[in-house]
Amino acid sequence: MSLDASIASRLKRDANGLFTAVAQERGTGQVLMVAWMDDIALDRTLRTRRATYWSRSRGEHWVKGETSGHTQYVHSVRLDCDGDTVLLEVDQTGAACHTGAHTCFDADLLLGPE
């Protein structure tokens, strides 16, 4: 299968055919992680509701939690106004971050609330 043409035509990809994917927790609204997708990853995500990404370091697709058990069930996918980022609203099981943290944005607060 391939990504629906009406969706594919709206995507803006980088030189490697990739675009940004942001995973947000459904219950809390917390941003869990940022990753990369290509058309194949988005198509698989839309068809299976299992978050599928492109690994730049490994050069292959990966389904979140396939080996770790830390899965993301996808409830919705939204395309931003520029067409270069998708937002996945997910139920996260286990850690979202490869460090074992629930979110990749726990560690380094650069500016706090006033």
UniProtKB/TrEMBL annotation:
GO biological process terms, semicolon-separated: L-histidine biosynthetic process
Which keywords accompany this UniProt record? Amino-acid biosynthesis, Cytoplasm, Histidine biosynthesis, Hydrolase, Magnesium, Metal-binding, Zinc
Cofactor-binding details, from the entry: Binds 1 Mg(2+) ion per subunit.
Q: Does the keyword Cytoplasm apply?
A: yes
Cellular compartments annotated: Cytoplasm
Q: Which GO terms describe its cellular component?
A: cytoplasm
Enzyme class, broadest EC rank = hydrolase
Question: Start and end of every Phosphoribosyl-AMP cyclohydrolase domain?
Answer: 33-105
Q: What cofactor does this protein call for? A: Mg(2+); Zn(2+)
Query: What does the record give as EC number?
Result: 3.5.4.19
Per UniProt, Mg(2+) binds at 80, 82, 84
Q: Which reaction does it catalyse?
A: 1-(5-phospho-beta-D-ribosyl)-ATP + H2O = 1-(5-phospho-beta-D-ribosyl)-5'-AMP + diphosphate + H(+); 1-(5-phospho-beta-D-ribosyl)-5'-AMP + H2O = 1-(5-phospho-beta-D-ribosyl)-5-[(5-phospho-beta-D-ribosylamino)methylideneamino]imidazole-4-carboxamide
User: Could you say which protein family the record assigns here?
Assistant: Belongs to the PRA-CH family. In the C-terminal section; belongs to the PRA-PH family.
Its recorded name reads Phosphoribosyl-AMP cyclohydrolase
